[in-house]
Amino acid sequence: MSYHPVPHDSPCPPPGQPPSPYPPQPDFPPPQPPVGQPFPPPPPPGYQGYFNEVYPPPPPAPQPSQDDHQNDTGCCSCLKGWYAIPLDCLFKVIGANNFVFRIWNECTRHLFILVCLMEIIFCPLFSILKLLISEIGDYSFMIHVRFFFFFWESLKPN
What we know:
Blueprint: H1 67-70, H2 84-93, H3 108-132, H4 139-155
Helix pairs in contact: 3-4
Protein name: Cysteine-rich transmembrane CYSTM domain-containing protein
Keywords: Membrane, Transmembrane, Transmembrane helix
């Protein structure tokens, strides 16, 4: 005796599972890709991500213009920090290597005193020159920062 008195077209569920409450769908399961074909197809060029957001193009890079030459005051860029060249030479003569002071290692306190004097004498001079000549640049600020950094490092115990 059959438990299904009326014949039907849907396949029976496997033993131990209840029957599906949904009627059979004609296009399920989804079609499988042919053998050897990629699935899904690769994204088109310009694909921006999962949600395919459209972002505006980046702004164009700035182009050099003739205004730079028209606003030039005649001061060569290599001369804007002219006072740093003899100062760098002086540091190399007294034993420092390109602004890296070996204060407590080689020259001990003599170099430290010399650097203190140079900070007192030269940095106000550089600040005045920077006020008088606007094309000097930020070398005086750099020298202040380097001096105070090495002062602080030299005061730490070894």
